[in-house]
Task: structure prediction
Amino acid sequence: MLRPKIPTMPTPTGLVSPSAVIEPTTVVQHPPTPAPAPATQVPSRPSVQLTSGAVLALVGGGTAVVLVVGAVLVSMLLAVAITGASVAVCALVIRSLITSQHRR
Result:
């Protein structure tokens, strides 16, 4: 149904020229060139300038992030603890129901 087409090697149609002969060349040494003069450096600008307001904003933002992440982690831990306690209470109730039926 679907057959791949295999490419065929084309035959050369023209005259094939012989490969060129490589002849050795002589090495000419030139006198060393003087190093270029160093470019004048542009004074670098400070990358970040923090004002007192920016520092306070960063501290406040970091504190808020820590408080939010802490609240989320504590709430997740509390949810796991409440779920575990409720499963334990359910297990005790079911156990007591099963044992009371065997006594009757």
